[in-house]
């Protein structure tokens, strides 16, 4: 007769039947790293392109707001970007409420916006303006530099801040 064996007598049989080998785990980790190496740069580029599209949209918003401001108040364009914003209950020429408060601060979606008055009349009313949209960290938050003025033509430059002579988009 054969003696009956219990599970405590053969513990090595259970350990061989379960789990993954070290080689299998290393292969899985290597595949994940390859996928990450491909996906992360694409994600960063797509984020830059989204910031650039947002910058163009923000410049269109500013030019539209300037036309509304000029038409509403009859004093030309606004003197600052902050004048187009505003969250107060009373809407006036200093708090027009035409753009969101984040854009009115001059920084949004990885870009900084610099508003400049180009010309004024004898009363001090603004006749011409320009806005430059530049990436906060070129190559990380965006590659393109943008420019718009009262003509509402958005221009771009890849290497330096855009000016009125750069090509339009």
Structure report:
The protein is of the alpha+beta class. It has one domain. It is 40% helix and 18% strand. It contains four helices and five strands, in the order ααααβββββ. The chain has a five-stranded antiparallel β-sheet with strand order 1-2-3-4-5. Strand 2 and strand 3 form a beta hairpin. The chain is elongated.
Helix content: 40-55%
Average per-residue pLDDT, rounded, comes to 89
Tell me the radius of gyration: 30 Å
Uncertain stretches: none
Q: Which properties best describe this structure?
A:
169 residues; alpha+beta; 5-stranded antiparallel sheet; 4 helices
Secondary structure layout plus pairing:
Blueprint: H1 11-17, H2 22-73, H3 81-84, H4 101-105, E1 107-108, E2 111-120, E3 126-135, E4 145-149, E5 155-157
Antiparallel strand pairs: 1-2, 2-3, 3-4, 4-5
Short précis:
With 169 residues, this protein is of the alpha+beta class. Helix content is 40%, strand content 18%. It has helices at 11-17, 22-73, 81-84, 101-105; strands at 107-108, 111-120, 126-135, 145-149, 155-157.
């Amino acid at each position: 007769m054969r003696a009956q064996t219990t599970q405590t007598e053969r513990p090595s049989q259970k350990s061989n039947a379960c789990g993954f080998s070290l080689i299998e785990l290393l292969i899985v980790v290597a595949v994940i790293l390859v996928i990450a190496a491909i996906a992360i740069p694409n994600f960063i580029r797509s984020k830059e392109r989204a910031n650039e599209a947002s910058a163009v949209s923000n410049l269109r918003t500013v030019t539209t707001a300037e036309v509304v401001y000029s038409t509403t108040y009859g004093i030309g364009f606004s003197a600052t970007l902050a004048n187009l914003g505003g969250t107060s209950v009373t809407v006036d020429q200093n708090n027009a409420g035409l753009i969101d408060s984040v854009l009115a601060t001059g920084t949004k979606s990885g870009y900084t916006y610099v508003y400049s008055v180009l010309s004024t009349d004898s009363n001090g009313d603004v006749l011409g303006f320009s806005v430059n949209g530049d990436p906060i960290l070129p190559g990380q938050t965006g590659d393109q530099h943008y420019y718009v003025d009262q003509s509402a033509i958005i221009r771009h430059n890849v290497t330096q801040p855009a000016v009125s002579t750069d090509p339009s988009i």
